[in-house]
Amino acid sequence: MAALFDHPLIKKIRLKLGIDTLDSRERRVLLGGIVFVLCFFVLQLVILPFWNARAALEVSIERKNSELLKMKQMQAEYQQLKVKEGGIRTKILKRTPGFTLFTFLDKQVTKAGVKKQIKYMKPSTQEGDNDLNESIVEMKLQRTTLEDLVSFILLVESEENVVSIRRISIQESGNEQGYLDVILQIRTFELKG
Q1: Distance from CA of residue 122 to its chain's centroid?
Q2: Which of 25, 39, 56, 86 has its CA 20 to 30 A from that of 108?
Q3: Is 189 helix (H, G, I), strand (E, B) or coil?
Q4: Strands (E), 42-105
Q5: Phi/psi of residue 177, each to 5°?
Q6: Backbone angles phi, psi at 152, to 5 degrees
Q7: How many Cβ atoms sit within 10 Å of the Cβ of residue 106?
């Protein structure tokens, strides 16, 4: 180690800095300062980044565990939906042959006595991702009473025929008090092909 300090380059640096002119107490203080600065840099450049990276990794692991838990919950919900979808297919296959939503609704408006209040009925079909298509009929009833509307809804919603109300908009009729204007979107599912 002494040979290192006797190297000509080291001697030249010590001479320029005036280290050799310092007494032993001043050298110890300088050495303590150098050790402190070196420890500070090691702490700032090595230890603290390591701790910060470790803390960030722990937070990331917690977040990933939370996401994994959510994915498992979604998978369970998906499995339940697949089971329900199988139930829907079974119900669709049990419906009367040639069942269409439009004719089903036409029969129900007659039963409910609201056929005269129908402004329009617009059928449409939406392609599904699996082997089911969604059949929708949008209809508008004008100047209908609340009792007639409730009666119609009770006839339309059919679990055995897989018919449900997707959306309903109710407004008071502008012409007469006590009457309603209603727009309904009613849907069912059909097997493709």
Answers
A1: 32
A2: 86
A3: strand
A4: none
A5: -75, 140
A6: -65, -45
A7: 14
CB neighbourhood size of 109 (10 A): 20
Q: Indicate if the alpha-carbon torsion angle 7, 9, 14, 20 is positive or negative.
A: positive
Cα 127 from chain centre: 23
β-strands 163-172, 118-126 pairing: unpaired
Question: If you ran DSSP here, which 8-state letter would residue 1 be given?
Answer: -
Q: Cα 63 vs. chain centroid, distance in angstroms?
A: 15
User: Which amino acid is residue 140, in one-letter code?
Assistant: K
C-alpha span between 31 and 35 (Å, rounded): 6
Tens-digit pLDDT profile for residues 69-123:
999 899 888 777 765 666 777 888 888 888 888 888 989 988 988 889 889 999 8
User: Can you tell me the distance from the alpha carbon of 10 to that of 14, in angstroms, rounded to the nearest whole number?
Assistant: 6
Structural contact between residues 184 and 122, judged by C-beta atoms closer than 8 angstroms: no
